[in-house]
Write a structure and sequence with these properties.
The protein contains 13 helices and 17 strands. The chain has 515 residues and is of the alpha/beta class.
Amino acid sequence: MAMKPLFRCWSVILLVLLSKSDASVEESSEEDCSEMKPKKPNIVFVLSDNTGWGDFSWTDETGIMQTPNMDELARSGVILNQTYVLPICTPTRAAFLTGRYPFRFGLGHRVIFPNQPSYLRRNESTLAEQLKQRGYNTHIVGKWHLGACREDVLPTSRGFDTHYGPWHGFIHYYTHDIPTSNVLNWENPETLALDFHDNTGAVIDKVGTHASELLQKRAVDIIGKHNPDVPMFLFMANLLAHQPYEVPEQYLQMYNETSVTGLREFRAMVTMFDDGIGKVVQALKDRGMWNNTILVVMNDNGGHQRFGSNWPLRGNLATAFEGGIRATGFIHSNLLHKTGYTNNELIHITDFFPTFLNLAGGNIDPQLQLDGMDVWDTLSEGKTSPRNGTILHYDTHVSSPCIAVRLGDYKLIDGRYDLISEFANIQTDRWVPKPEHVNPDIPDVLPIDKVATLLFNIKDDPREIHDLSESMPDIVEELRQYGADVTAGAPPPFFPDKEPEAANNIKGIWTANWC
């Protein structure tokens, strides 16, 4: 599909028609129209890590969270109210960068562990590769988390000009290391290895500086050195607010009234994330790029109920409930035609792939077999989404078989609703208010078994209180059939055993080429 112009120069054409006898006017008008031809937009896509639905100020009912930069951008842009991600880190990133459901290439189950020989398959084309073909400079700042056991699966081999940050899913923020053993032992220094890279080289001279400070500075530096005449794709895959909960004192002081250890640090990390958004926006303005930039910010999955808040939604990260997969987010751009409202249309994270490609120009190769749909008219003008249904989660691994489907207003969860076996002793189907909530409206619903068939009308019941599966069996079967049709032919999960040799090949620094 060809790129749709973001605007047209009808008034200039009218001047030409009315003034044909005036060569100077005609010449000037042609020049003006040329200047008004659509320019490929810069794309800045930002993911927070393990923040919940209620962790940003525009969704926080208590007024505790301090995210002023995002709050202003969200309220003056478009707040996305029904945008879905995957339940956990790796699948969300895989879906965004391929425009395809991650179960189609085996990455729908859990995450890629550091010592696991797993990765995003080379035959899956990435958004960075596609945008690079369309003339973009491409950068990723932050965590990769799509495999690092071979150099040819690292970001700079998958379409990105540069990568700065960790290869894996989390690190100590000050020492920049991560456990190498099968048991994630954060305290034993003998099991830790540095995981902070500049492209493929280890960054060893920045230990002691908070990793997010380094990432924010690199993003600003990339923008400051960028040629504004060349379109830019910047993927900011933040670490904040993933554990361990480490944050500079200046942000901690903003939450002195939060007395719970860990919760105070988590909230401070969210504000640090917001501060980084403000710095990036200012850098874009200083470089003269802001007016032609599309900024999207959202969380990668729900928050962990220990500190992150999914209230008033149900569930935890790594679950198929709305609290695990419904993203808090917004889009802000001067290229939007309608702003200052909340968009309630159905959007899936795979949709950004074809949306961005169409804005970048050129046709989309049908061999990509995308699951995503172009939702620019939905985002830009508030039109009805082309999407009526989506697969929210699909996993056939023996430990957590489940499918979650959204079709129209209805949502089906069929199977094990959380996909992490470590949650076996945690009731992850609850509604968990913040400690500061006064008389919270906690639904009077008994805990349910980990494996269940549940049907909800999300339009009428976004908190998933009323299970309709027994009273509406025909709808259950309709959604089951939809899910079966979409997932037909899916391969088994690509989830190999963790490799002890990984640790043997790592001498204090994570390296590739061990699988």
